[in-house]
Every structure is written in structure tokens, then in C-alpha cells.
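User: Sequence recovery, please. Input:
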């Protein structure tokens, strides 16, 4: 009777000791495996898939949660996204990188590098956010970009999730342009991250996403080819500076369809080196409108051609359809068509401005980006009476030529007096009676018509 408690205690201690050994062995094994977890090679050229990591999902679906993403909006999930990208990018068959619904993933400035072995889908179901403002941005990361896709071919970025740029703290920087009480603006802009940038990529599709509050441009496409953008919702406050919805530069064969954009700058801006661009069924505003340019800054050469904007609505915006160029530049804008566009209280519904300048100190120069063969057809609606409904301010030395107007009816949003359109050195034709009439067009062609660049005009 005396020995039984002692034996019982000894047995219990022995069992507890065995359990401790098992737990320690598991911890050691877990620690060992964790030490062997591969480091993402995302910033380097693609290489064979990292060994030792097998996602516990379908071989063609790579859920970032399976690679360690937490999704609480606070923890840094950058490494999990990099690892998921590395393996999905090297999959032999078309793969899907999945950002699941119901989570908020915080990731830092990252470059997703290609080319990938096969087509890849970046599917956003949840929410993706960056660090919260300039003070939270890592010092060794670029403040000019957030999510970059570099040298990607055959990629689709899609889903019904949200990309939130958390831009408010960037907009409030002292170096940003802010409208004062008398309409003046402070100096700007300064470095702020573009939310999503595609660089040197081809056959890219972006569809179905919602993106808001970017610190600067929401989407930017540089040196890309064959781009389809469809069913996007882009939203930022009307006074958020430099928050263009979609900007393209040196990019061709672009289709932008069925999207709603409201922001603090251009809904769509088309930069130098772009051609074969089709924009259709866009609801734009409040914003600065749909713009070609600005082009030719710092005496640079800029060429744009074959641009079509159709079947769209522009509302409560500073501009409608705009072409803007700096004095002193070179190159051309040609073969542009704006058709079937409704204007709803727009300050400058139709504008060509070859005197674009961000200050009052720009000097008159003798060269300019030429503007020719621009067609305006079936453009109707109302304009803000503070500005004329149509403004064609063309260069003294390089006039606008072959401007064409038909079925244009623009009425004042307030009052009954039609404002007179403004023309300067603009050669064009009214094919139907416009409201208000554009009686200031010059007939025919100027004495010396600038020739279209061979490398610009595309069939």
C-alpha cells in the first residue's frame, strides 16, 4: 500500500518525459523545416522551382495562404506573395495565383518578374493594401511604385476583390499640388507610388477589379503590347492629386472597355509612343477627363496615332476630351476620333491646348507637336459656363489641321446664352451645324503643312 503511490508517480513522470521528448522532436523538426524554407527569387531572373515546398492545393492553384500569408492587414505578407509567384510562374501548365476572399493582405513594394513558363492568372478575391503612408514605407523600397509586373506575357489579372492604395497620407504631403482658396497651387508633384505598373509586358488582361485611393496613378502601362482592360471600377476623391486612372506610355494595341473611373486627374491619359488605342463605354468623372498628353515636355519628341474614344460619358469634370502639348516639343498627334460621347456639366468638353503649361512662366517657342486629322462626332450634353464649350488653341508655328466636327451639340448647364468657341490657328470643317457654331475655324490648309512621321502613322 505504501509503494503504490510512488510507482504511480514514477510512471506518470516517465510518461510525461516521453511526451516531452516527442514534443521537442516535433519542434526541432518544424524549426529545421522552417530554416530550409526557400527564399523568393522574385527579384532575380526565373530559375527552377524552389525545392522543399509543396503547396497543399491543386497543382494549378497557388493560394498565398498556403505560402504563409496571414491576411490580417497588419502582418507583412510580401514574402508569401513572392514565393507563390515564383512557383506559379514556373508551372508547366497555366497556373492561378489566388488571393482569397475574406482577408486583407499587406504587401510592400514588389516586382513580380517574368517571363513565366505558361499563362498565369493573378486572381484577387480579397483585399491588397500597401504600408500605410510615407512614414511606414520601407526606406530601401522605391517610393515611385508599389506592385510592378515586369516582362510578363500572357497574364490575366482579375477577380472581384479590392486593391486599396491607402493614398491619403501621400496626397497630404506638402510637396503635392493643392488648390488654395484663390485657385493657386503649391509646388508638385513629388515621389509617390503608382499602384499597379506593367512594364515591358505583352498580351496582358486586367478585368473585373476594384481599385481605389492610389497614392499616384492607379494603373500604368509602359512599353507594353496587346493590352485588354475591361470592367474596372477605379475611385479616388476628386481633389486627390496626380491620381490618373489608367496611364499608357509607349504602348500599343490597347483596348479599354466598360469601366467606371472617378478620380483627381485624368480618367485615361495617353502618353508618347502610343498607337492603336480603343476606348469604349467608359463612365468618367468627376475627373480631368480623357486626355492625349501632355506631350513634348522639355523639348522632347512625342508621337501618338490611331486613337478612338467612343460610346462614353464624361460628367462633372474639368475637361472632356483633351489633347495637350507643350511648346518646344516635336512629333505628331494624328488620326484621332472622339464619337458618341455625352457630356454632363463639363468645364472644357472639347479642347486642344498646344500651350500646355503648369505655370505662368512658359515662354513662346517656335516648335510644337503637330495635331492633325482629329474627328469629333456626335458629342452632346452640357458645359460649365466658366469656360467655352470648345477650345482649339493651336501653335503659332505648327497649326492644327484637318479638324472635323459633326453632330456636336453643347448647351450651357446654367442660363440660356451660348458661349462662343475659341480658335487660334486651327484649320477645320463643320460637316453639320454645331451648337454653338464654330465660326472661327480657318479654311483649307496652312501655307506649310507639317508632314506626318513615317514611324507614327499606322494603318
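Assistant: Recovered sequence (459 residues):
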Amino acid at each position: 500500500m505504501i509503494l503504490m503511490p510512488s510507482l504511480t508517480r514514477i510512471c506518470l513522470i516517465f510518461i510525461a518525459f516521453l511526451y516531452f521528448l516527442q514534443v521537442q522532436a516535433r519542434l526541432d523538426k518544424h524549426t529545421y523545416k522552417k530554416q530550409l524554407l526557400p527564399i523568393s527569387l522574385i527579384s532575380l531572373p526565373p530559375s527552377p522551382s524552389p525545392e522543399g515546398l509543396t503547396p497543399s492545393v491543386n497543382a494549378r492553384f497557388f493560394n498565398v495562404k498556403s505560402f504563409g500569408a496571414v491576411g490580417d492587414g497588419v502582418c507583412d505578407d510580401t514574402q508569401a506573395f513572392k514565393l507563390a509567384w515564383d512557383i506559379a510562374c514556373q508551372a508547366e501548365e497555366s497556373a492561378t495565383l489566388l488571393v482569397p476572399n475574406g482577408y486583407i493582405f499587406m504587401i510592400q513594394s514588389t516586382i513580380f518578374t517574368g517571363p513565366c513558363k505558361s499563362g498565369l492568372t493573378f486572381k484577387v478575391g480579397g483585399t491588397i493594401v500597401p504600408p500605410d503612408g510615407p512614414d511606414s514605407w520601407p526606406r530601401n523600397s522605391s517610393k515611385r511604385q508599389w506592385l510592378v509586373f515586369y516582362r510578363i506575357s500572357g497574364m490575366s489579372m482579375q477577380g472581384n476583390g479590392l486593391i486599396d492604395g491607402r493614398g491619403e497620407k501621400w496626397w497630404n504631403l506638402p510637396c503635392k499640388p493643392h488648390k488654395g482658396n484663390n485657385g493657386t497651387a503649391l509646388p508638385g508633384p513629388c515621389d509617390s507610388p503608382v499602384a499597379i505598373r506593367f512594364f515591358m509586358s505583352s498580351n496582358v488582361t486586367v478585368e473585373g477589379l476594384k481599385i481605389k485611393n492610389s497614392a499616384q496613378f492607379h494603373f500604368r502601362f509602359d512599353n507594353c503590347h496587346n493590352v485588354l482592360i475591361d470592367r474596372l471600377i477605379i475611385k479616388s476623391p476628386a481633389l486627390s492629386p496626380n491620381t490618373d486612372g489608367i496611364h499608357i506610355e509607349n504602348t500599343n494595341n490597347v483596348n479599354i472597355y466598360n469601366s467606371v473611373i472617378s478620380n483627381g486627374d485624368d480618367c485615361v491619359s495617353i502618353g508618347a509612343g502610343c498607337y492603336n488605342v480603343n476606348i469604349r463605354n467608359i463612365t468618367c468623372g468627376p475627373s480631368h477627363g480623357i486626355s492625349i498628353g501632355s506631350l513634348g515636355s522639355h523639348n522632347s519628341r512625342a508621337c501618338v496615332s490611331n486613337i478612338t474614344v467612343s460610346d462614353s460619358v464624361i460628367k462633372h469634370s474639368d475637361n472632356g476630351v483633351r489633347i495637350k502639348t507643350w511648346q518646344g516639343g516635336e512629333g505628331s498627334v494624328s488620326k484621332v476620333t472622339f464619337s458618341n460621347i455625352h457630356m454632363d456639366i463639363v468645364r472644357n468638353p472639347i479642347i486642344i491646348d498646344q500651350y500646355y503649361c503648369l505655370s505662368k512662366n512658359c515662354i513662346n517657342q517656335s516648335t510644337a507637336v503637330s495635331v492633325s486629322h482629329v474627328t469629333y462626332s456626335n458629342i452632346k450634353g452640357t458645359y460649365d459656363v466658366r469656360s467655352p464649350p470648345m477650345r482649339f488653341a493651336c501653335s503659332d508655328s505648327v497649326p492644327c489641321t484637318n479638324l472635323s466636327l459633326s453632330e456636336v451639340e453643347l448647351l450651357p448647364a446654367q442660363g440660356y446664352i451660348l458661349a462662343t468657341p475659341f480658335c487660334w490657328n486651327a484649320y477645320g470643317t463643320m460637316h453639320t451645324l454645331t451648337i454653338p457654331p464654330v465660326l472661327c475655324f480657318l479654311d483649307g490648309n496652312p501655307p506649310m503643312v507639317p508632314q506626318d512621321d513615317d514611324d507614327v502613322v499606322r494603318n
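The longest strand covers residues 330-346.
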